[in-house]
Amino acid sequence: MTAAAHTLVVQAAHLDSDSLAELARLCGATDIQQLHAGLARLSPADPASRAAVAAQADQLGYDIAFVAAGRRFSDFGLVVSDMDSTLITIECIDEIADMLGIKHKVAAITERSMRGELDFCDSLRERVALLAGLEESALETVYRERVQLTHGAETLLAACKQHGVKFMLVSGGFTFFTERLKARTGLDYAFANELEVENGKLTGRVVGRILDGNVKQQLLLEKRAELGLAPEQVIAVGDGANDLKMLGEAGVGIAFHAKPVVRQQADVAINVMGLDGIVHLFA
Protein backbone atom coordinates (compact mmCIF):
# COMPACT_ATOMS: atom_id res chain seq x y z
CA MET A 1 0.00 0.00 0.00
CA THR A 2 1.10 3.57 -0.59
CA ALA A 3 1.63 6.08 2.19
CA ALA A 4 -1.71 7.66 1.27
CA ALA A 5 -3.66 4.41 1.63
CA HIS A 6 -6.37 4.24 4.28
CA THR A 7 -8.30 1.59 6.16
CA LEU A 8 -11.89 1.99 7.29
CA VAL A 9 -12.17 0.79 10.89
CA VAL A 10 -15.70 -0.23 11.89
CA GLN A 11 -16.72 -0.86 15.50
CA ALA A 12 -19.94 -1.73 17.33
CA ALA A 13 -21.22 -4.22 19.89
CA HIS A 14 -21.95 -6.54 16.95
CA LEU A 15 -21.26 -6.12 13.24
CA ASP A 16 -23.46 -7.58 10.52
CA SER A 17 -21.71 -9.04 7.46
CA ASP A 18 -24.23 -7.57 5.00
CA SER A 19 -23.79 -4.13 6.55
CA LEU A 20 -20.02 -4.43 6.33
CA ALA A 21 -20.35 -5.36 2.66
CA GLU A 22 -22.41 -2.23 2.05
CA LEU A 23 -19.85 -0.05 3.84
CA ALA A 24 -17.09 -1.67 1.77
CA ARG A 25 -19.00 -0.83 -1.39
CA LEU A 26 -19.43 2.78 -0.30
CA CYS A 27 -15.74 3.30 0.48
CA GLY A 28 -14.39 1.20 -2.38
CA ALA A 29 -12.80 -1.44 -0.17
CA THR A 30 -12.07 -4.87 -1.62
CA ASP A 31 -10.86 -6.58 1.55
CA ILE A 32 -13.02 -7.06 4.66
CA GLN A 33 -11.23 -8.33 7.76
CA GLN A 34 -13.60 -8.97 10.66
CA LEU A 35 -11.25 -9.39 13.59
CA HIS A 36 -14.04 -10.20 16.04
CA ALA A 37 -17.78 -9.66 16.42
CA GLY A 38 -17.40 -5.93 17.05
CA LEU A 39 -14.34 -4.91 15.01
CA ALA A 40 -13.61 -4.93 11.28
CA ARG A 41 -11.07 -3.33 8.95
CA LEU A 42 -12.02 -2.54 5.36
CA SER A 43 -9.27 -1.72 2.87
CA PRO A 44 -8.26 0.09 0.82
CA ALA A 45 -10.80 2.79 1.78
CA ASP A 46 -11.28 6.11 0.02
CA PRO A 47 -11.55 8.99 2.53
CA ALA A 48 -13.53 10.95 -0.07
CA SER A 49 -16.43 8.63 0.75
CA ARG A 50 -16.46 9.76 4.39
CA ALA A 51 -19.82 11.57 4.27
CA ALA A 52 -21.68 8.65 2.67
CA VAL A 53 -20.01 6.09 4.93
CA ALA A 54 -20.70 8.15 8.07
CA ALA A 55 -24.37 8.57 7.17
CA GLN A 56 -24.77 4.81 6.67
CA ALA A 57 -22.84 4.03 9.86
CA ASP A 58 -25.07 6.39 11.86
CA GLN A 59 -28.13 4.49 10.68
CA LEU A 60 -26.51 1.20 11.65
CA GLY A 61 -25.27 2.42 15.04
CA TYR A 62 -21.65 1.79 14.08
CA ASP A 63 -18.52 3.82 14.78
CA ILE A 64 -16.30 4.35 11.74
CA ALA A 65 -12.90 5.93 11.21
CA PHE A 66 -10.61 6.36 8.22
CA VAL A 67 -7.11 5.54 9.49
CA ALA A 68 -3.79 5.61 7.65
CA ALA A 69 -3.05 2.03 6.65
CA GLY A 70 -0.60 0.24 8.91
CA ARG A 71 -0.77 2.84 11.69
CA ARG A 72 -0.11 1.29 15.09
CA PHE A 73 -0.91 2.54 18.57
CA SER A 74 2.79 2.26 19.40
CA ASP A 75 3.52 4.88 16.69
CA PHE A 76 2.15 7.53 19.07
CA GLY A 77 3.96 9.14 21.97
CA LEU A 78 1.23 11.10 23.75
CA VAL A 79 -2.50 10.88 24.43
CA VAL A 80 -4.12 14.10 25.67
CA SER A 81 -7.58 13.67 27.18
CA ASP A 82 -10.36 15.71 28.68
CA MET A 83 -11.70 14.47 32.02
CA ASP A 84 -15.42 15.15 32.51
CA SER A 85 -17.66 13.01 30.29
CA THR A 86 -14.50 11.62 28.66
CA LEU A 87 -12.09 9.83 31.01
CA ILE A 88 -14.87 9.75 33.63
CA THR A 89 -18.61 9.42 33.15
CA ILE A 90 -19.79 12.57 34.94
CA GLU A 91 -19.45 16.35 34.86
CA CYS A 92 -17.93 16.95 38.29
CA ILE A 93 -19.20 20.51 38.67
CA ASP A 94 -22.77 19.35 38.07
CA GLU A 95 -22.45 16.70 40.77
CA ILE A 96 -20.88 19.19 43.18
CA ALA A 97 -23.86 21.46 42.54
CA ASP A 98 -26.13 18.54 43.39
CA MET A 99 -24.75 18.73 46.93
CA LEU A 100 -26.46 22.14 47.12
CA GLY A 101 -29.62 21.05 45.31
CA ILE A 102 -28.88 23.20 42.25
CA LYS A 103 -27.66 20.57 39.80
CA HIS A 104 -30.32 21.44 37.23
CA LYS A 105 -29.25 25.07 37.18
CA VAL A 106 -25.53 24.38 36.87
CA ALA A 107 -25.97 21.49 34.42
CA ALA A 108 -27.91 23.73 32.04
CA ILE A 109 -24.99 26.17 31.96
CA THR A 110 -22.50 23.32 31.52
CA GLU A 111 -24.45 21.93 28.57
CA ARG A 112 -24.55 25.28 26.80
CA SER A 113 -20.85 25.82 27.43
CA MET A 114 -19.91 22.40 26.06
CA ARG A 115 -21.98 23.10 22.94
CA GLY A 116 -19.98 26.27 22.38
CA GLU A 117 -22.92 28.59 23.06
CA LEU A 118 -21.24 30.32 26.02
CA ASP A 119 -17.72 31.58 26.69
CA PHE A 120 -16.06 28.87 28.76
CA CYS A 121 -14.28 31.15 31.23
CA ASP A 122 -17.37 33.23 31.91
CA SER A 123 -19.56 30.15 32.30
CA LEU A 124 -17.09 28.50 34.67
CA ARG A 125 -16.91 31.59 36.87
CA GLU A 126 -20.71 31.74 36.92
CA ARG A 127 -21.04 28.09 37.90
CA VAL A 128 -18.28 28.17 40.52
CA ALA A 129 -19.81 31.28 42.10
CA LEU A 130 -22.98 29.26 42.71
CA LEU A 131 -20.95 26.82 44.83
CA ALA A 132 -19.88 29.43 47.40
CA GLY A 133 -20.28 28.23 50.98
CA LEU A 134 -20.24 24.51 50.19
CA GLU A 135 -18.18 22.43 52.60
CA GLU A 136 -14.96 21.19 50.98
CA SER A 137 -15.80 17.71 52.27
CA ALA A 138 -18.58 17.55 49.68
CA LEU A 139 -15.90 17.20 46.99
CA GLU A 140 -14.68 14.00 48.62
CA THR A 141 -18.25 12.71 48.65
CA VAL A 142 -18.58 13.37 44.92
CA TYR A 143 -15.26 11.68 44.19
CA ARG A 144 -15.99 8.64 46.36
CA GLU A 145 -19.62 8.10 45.36
CA ARG A 146 -19.95 9.41 41.81
CA VAL A 147 -16.66 9.44 39.91
CA GLN A 148 -16.40 6.38 37.68
CA LEU A 149 -13.98 5.72 34.85
CA THR A 150 -15.60 5.58 31.44
CA HIS A 151 -15.97 2.12 29.90
CA GLY A 152 -12.73 1.16 28.19
CA ALA A 153 -10.58 3.65 30.10
CA GLU A 154 -8.57 0.87 31.75
CA THR A 155 -7.86 -0.67 28.35
CA LEU A 156 -6.68 2.64 26.92
CA LEU A 157 -4.46 3.40 29.92
CA ALA A 158 -3.01 -0.12 29.87
CA ALA A 159 -2.19 0.22 26.17
CA CYS A 160 -0.42 3.50 26.88
CA LYS A 161 1.72 1.89 29.56
CA GLN A 162 2.44 -1.16 27.39
CA HIS A 163 3.64 0.90 24.44
CA GLY A 164 5.33 3.75 26.33
CA VAL A 165 2.73 6.33 25.30
CA LYS A 166 2.44 9.19 27.80
CA PHE A 167 -1.06 10.13 29.02
CA MET A 168 -1.93 13.72 29.89
CA LEU A 169 -5.22 14.76 31.46
CA VAL A 170 -6.22 18.36 30.70
CA SER A 171 -9.48 19.40 32.29
CA GLY A 172 -11.65 22.47 32.57
CA GLY A 173 -12.72 20.82 35.83
CA PHE A 174 -10.85 20.78 39.09
CA THR A 175 -7.51 19.64 40.50
CA PHE A 176 -9.29 17.98 43.42
CA PHE A 177 -10.41 15.30 40.97
CA THR A 178 -7.56 15.23 38.46
CA GLU A 179 -4.92 14.71 41.15
CA ARG A 180 -6.84 11.81 42.66
CA LEU A 181 -7.34 10.22 39.26
CA LYS A 182 -3.65 10.68 38.49
CA ALA A 183 -2.66 8.88 41.67
CA ARG A 184 -5.29 6.19 41.22
CA THR A 185 -4.59 5.32 37.58
CA GLY A 186 -0.94 6.27 37.15
CA LEU A 187 -1.45 9.14 34.71
CA ASP A 188 1.75 10.83 33.60
CA TYR A 189 0.45 14.40 33.74
CA ALA A 190 -2.70 16.17 34.94
CA PHE A 191 -3.80 19.81 34.70
CA ALA A 192 -7.04 21.48 35.82
CA ASN A 193 -8.52 24.47 37.66
CA GLU A 194 -8.06 24.96 41.40
CA LEU A 195 -11.06 25.78 43.54
CA GLU A 196 -10.40 28.38 46.23
CA VAL A 197 -11.12 27.15 49.77
CA GLU A 198 -11.20 29.22 52.95
CA ASN A 199 -12.04 27.86 56.41
CA GLY A 200 -13.06 24.53 54.91
CA LYS A 201 -15.58 26.01 52.48
CA LEU A 202 -15.57 26.89 48.78
CA THR A 203 -15.39 30.64 48.22
CA GLY A 204 -17.02 30.51 44.81
CA ARG A 205 -13.79 31.47 43.06
CA VAL A 206 -11.05 29.76 41.05
CA VAL A 207 -7.37 30.27 41.95
CA GLY A 208 -5.18 31.56 39.11
CA ARG A 209 -5.79 31.23 35.39
CA ILE A 210 -8.74 29.28 34.08
CA LEU A 211 -7.88 26.23 32.02
CA ASP A 212 -9.98 26.91 28.92
CA GLY A 213 -9.65 25.78 25.32
CA ASN A 214 -6.68 28.04 24.68
CA VAL A 215 -4.79 26.68 27.68
CA LYS A 216 -5.60 23.09 26.71
CA GLN A 217 -4.12 23.81 23.28
CA GLN A 218 -1.05 25.43 24.85
CA LEU A 219 -0.47 22.51 27.23
CA LEU A 220 -0.61 20.03 24.35
CA LEU A 221 1.89 22.06 22.32
CA GLU A 222 4.24 22.44 25.29
CA LYS A 223 4.19 18.75 26.19
CA ARG A 224 4.56 17.71 22.55
CA ALA A 225 7.67 19.87 22.24
CA GLU A 226 9.04 18.69 25.60
CA LEU A 227 8.72 15.06 24.51
CA GLY A 228 10.18 15.78 21.06
CA LEU A 229 7.11 14.49 19.23
CA ALA A 230 5.77 15.35 15.80
CA PRO A 231 2.11 16.41 15.55
CA GLU A 232 1.16 13.05 13.99
CA GLN A 233 2.42 11.28 17.12
CA VAL A 234 -0.27 12.85 19.32
CA ILE A 235 -3.85 11.71 19.96
CA ALA A 236 -6.28 14.13 21.60
CA VAL A 237 -9.73 13.20 22.83
CA GLY A 238 -12.59 15.29 24.19
CA ASP A 239 -16.31 15.97 24.05
CA GLY A 240 -16.89 19.72 24.38
CA ALA A 241 -16.32 22.89 22.38
CA ASN A 242 -13.48 23.83 24.74
CA ASP A 243 -11.60 20.77 23.44
CA LEU A 244 -11.65 21.79 19.77
CA LYS A 245 -8.36 23.69 19.72
CA MET A 246 -6.40 20.85 21.28
CA LEU A 247 -8.06 18.32 18.95
CA GLY A 248 -6.94 20.47 16.05
CA GLU A 249 -3.29 20.29 17.16
CA ALA A 250 -3.25 16.48 17.35
CA GLY A 251 -2.37 14.07 14.60
CA VAL A 252 -5.63 12.33 15.45
CA GLY A 253 -8.36 14.40 17.10
CA ILE A 254 -11.13 12.24 18.53
CA ALA A 255 -14.63 13.41 19.47
CA PHE A 256 -15.77 11.04 22.22
CA HIS A 257 -19.56 10.88 22.73
CA ALA A 258 -19.27 14.53 21.90
CA LYS A 259 -21.41 17.56 21.20
CA PRO A 260 -22.39 18.06 17.53
CA VAL A 261 -19.93 20.92 16.99
CA VAL A 262 -17.08 18.65 18.08
CA ARG A 263 -18.18 15.62 16.05
CA GLN A 264 -18.34 17.77 12.95
CA GLN A 265 -14.78 19.04 13.26
CA ALA A 266 -12.85 16.09 14.71
CA ASP A 267 -10.87 13.58 12.65
CA VAL A 268 -12.70 10.69 14.28
CA ALA A 269 -15.99 10.47 16.17
CA ILE A 270 -16.58 7.66 18.66
CA ASN A 271 -20.29 7.68 19.43
CA VAL A 272 -20.96 4.03 20.34
CA MET A 273 -17.84 2.42 21.76
CA GLY A 274 -15.94 3.14 24.97
CA LEU A 275 -12.43 4.53 25.24
CA ASP A 276 -11.05 1.12 24.24
CA GLY A 277 -12.35 2.03 20.78
CA ILE A 278 -9.37 4.38 20.48
CA VAL A 279 -6.88 1.51 20.85
CA HIS A 280 -8.80 -0.59 18.30
CA LEU A 281 -8.49 2.12 15.66
CA PHE A 282 -4.91 1.08 15.07
CA ALA A 283 -3.50 -2.21 13.82
Topology:
Elements: E1 6-11, H1 17-27, E2 31-36, E3 39-43, H2 50-60, E4 63-68, E5 78-81, H3 83-87, H4 92-98, H5 103-114, H6 120-129, H7 137-146, H8 153-163, E6 166-174, H9 175-185, E7 189-198, E8 201-207, H10 213-226, E9 234-238, H11 244-249, E10 252-256, H12 260-265, E11 268-270, H13 276-279
Parallel strand pairs: 5-6, 5-9, 6-7, 9-10, 10-11
Antiparallel strand pairs: 1-3, 1-4, 2-3, 7-8
Helix pairs in contact: 1-2, 4-5, 5-6
What does this structure look like?
By secondary structure, the protein is an alpha/beta fold. It has a domain at about 1-70: Alpha-Beta Plaits. The protein has helices at about 15-25, 50-60, 85, 90-100, 105-115, 120-130, 135-145, 155-165, 175-185, 215-225, 245-250, 260-265, 275-280, and strands at about 5-10, 30-35, 40-45, 65-70, 80, 165-175, 190-200, 200-205, 235-240, 250-255, 270. The strands form two sheets. A seven-stranded mixed sheet has the order 8-7-6-5-9-10-11, with helices on both faces. A four-stranded antiparallel sheet has the order 2-3-1-4, covered by helices on one side. Strand 9 (about 235-240), helix 11 and strand 10 (about 250-255) form a beta-alpha-beta unit. Helix 1 runs antiparallel to helix 2 (about 50-60), helix 4 packs antiparallel against helix 5 (about 105-115) and helix 5 (about 105-115) packs antiparallel against helix 6 (about 120-130). The longest helix has 14 residues, at about 215-225. The radius of gyration is 20 Å and the shape is elongated. The protein starts with 5 loop residues before the first strand and ends with a helix. It holds the Pfam family DUF4072. It is an enzyme of class 3 (hydrolase). Its EC number is 3.1.3.3. It comes from Paludibacterium denitrificans. One of its GO terms (molecular function) is magnesium ion binding.
